């Protein structure tokens, strides 16, 4: 293959670097903002995902025109700019940087879906999309492992500059994959047809018999996933009385297990239909039940639990809430016509990101009113209802 990059490596590089960048500011926020860190983390995360939802829907029609690899390169350049703006360190600069990171984050899933749909056999969709999406927990894990150390050694400004340099280097590296764009590029709709197309895509992913339940799963599962990332450490320290190093270690463990779960579940979904698992949609429903059980386990957790029991509950939550992504994206790619892969993935991603914003917000409201047990209980109930809805459609 020479200097050319294979499609799966292209998407994996983009997802990992963009996830690393999106996680870098929240990881460094206690150093950047001190006592205001918690508030600014919430604002930064909400702005990133709200912007990503809008751009995922509104820019997906440009991906076939630019080509998915070129789109990923532009996203990485926007991410580079976002990290440099965040270096200013003021609240407006952090919000501006969040907008740029959100602009980068929005097109990455539809671009990756379009590229893989055109280059990977349908029978390998589950594994391919799961490998592709391991970049998300992988990037978060890298942020947690690297940035506290570089910040302590060199300061947070050089740490963010380093992330910007990594994003720029990744954008340049993806030039070796530009050959993959040639058979995919096509002109987008224009004018009034484009407006109708965006609305039609959104309506389609919400109402289609197969894609609608998958979009519902994405909203709920991504909300549960972000609740884990946002609240696990504070839950373990504040409610369970655990030390910061132990709590951080369990968060890293959950991310690592999530990577493994994505690969295992993606491979398993490629075996469907089978006697055990008739369809990917049924598998998504089963994952929802596991998320409900895991969230219920977290709700029942008390300070007297053994470390082994705590670890088991956290691992189960991490595996389920992080492992679903490749299976759902593979099912979406299989359900959508190939030429509409980026449109459907873009609209579905926009819908899913609403869960990324609303899930932690709802968790925080319930937490403030009734405590961690009630908050995790709400996650469990919503996941269980979602699983039942999906299983009835499967």
Automatic annotation (TrEMBL):
The entry's keywords: Membrane, Transmembrane, Transmembrane helix
Domain Major facilitator superfamily (MFS) profile residue range list: 1-394
Species this chain originates from: Tistrella bauzanensis
PROSITE patterns: MFS
Gene3D superfamilies: MFS general substrate transporter like domains
Lineage, uppermost ranks: Bacteria, Pseudomonadati, Pseudomonadota, Alphaproteobacteria, Geminicoccales
Source superkingdom: Bacteria
Protein known as: Major facilitator superfamily (MFS) profile domain-containing protein
InterPro entries: MFS, MFS-Transporter, MFS_dom, MFS_trans_sf
Transmembrane residue ranges: 38-59, 71-91, 97-118, 125-147, 159-177, 214-237, 249-269, 281-301, 307-332, 344-366, 372-391
PANTHER family assigned: BLL3282 PROTEIN
């Amino acid at each position: 293959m020479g200097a050319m990059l294979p499609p799966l490596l292209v998407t994996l590089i983009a997802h990992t670097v963009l996830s690393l960048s999106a996680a870098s500011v929240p990881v460094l926020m206690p150093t950047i903002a001190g006592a205001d860190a918690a508030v600014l983390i919430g604002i930064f995360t909400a702005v990133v995902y709200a912007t990503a939802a809008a751009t995922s829907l509104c820019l997906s029609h440009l991906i076939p025109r630019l080509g998915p690899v070129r789109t990923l390169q532009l996203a990485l350049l926007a991410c580079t700019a976002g990290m440099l703006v965040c270096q200013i360190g003021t609240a407006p600069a952090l919000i501006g940087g969040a907008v740029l990171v959100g602009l980068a984050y929005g097109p990455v899933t539809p671009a990756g879906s379009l590229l893989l749909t055109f280059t990977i056999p349908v029978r390998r969709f589950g594994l391919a999309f799961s490998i592709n999406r391991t970049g998300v927990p992988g990037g978060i894990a890298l942020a947690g492992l690297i940035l506290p150390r570089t910040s302590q050694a060199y300061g947070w400004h050089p740490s963010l500059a380093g992330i910007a340099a990594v994003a720029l280097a990744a954008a340049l590296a993806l030039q070796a994959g530009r050959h993959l764009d040639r058979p995919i590029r096509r002109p987008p709709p224009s004018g009034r047809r484009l407006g109708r197309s965006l609305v039609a895509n959104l309506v389609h992913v919400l109402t289609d018999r197969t894609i609608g339940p998958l979009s519902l799963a994405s909203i709920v599962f991504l909300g549960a996933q972000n609740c884990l990332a946002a609240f696990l450490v504070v839950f373990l320290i504040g409610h369970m009385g655990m030390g910061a190093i132990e709590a951080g270690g369990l968060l890293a463990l959950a991310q690592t297990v999530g990577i493994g779960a994505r690969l295992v579940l993606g491979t398993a979904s490629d075996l469907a239909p089978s006697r055990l698992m008739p369809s990917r949609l049924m598998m998504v429903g089963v994952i929802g039940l596991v998320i409900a059980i895991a969230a219920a386990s977290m709700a029942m957790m008390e300070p007297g639990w053994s470390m082994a029991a705590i670890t088991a509950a956290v691992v189960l939550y991490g595996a389920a809430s992080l492992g679903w992504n490749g299976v759902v994206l593979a099912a979406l790619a299989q359900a959508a016509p190939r030429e509409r892969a980026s449109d459907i993935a873009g609209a579905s991603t926009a819908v899913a990101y609403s869960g990324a914003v609303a899930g932690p917000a709802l968790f925080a409201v319930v937490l403030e009113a009734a405590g961690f047990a009630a908050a995790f209980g709400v996650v469990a109930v919503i996941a269980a209802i979602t699983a039942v809805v999906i299983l009835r459609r499967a």
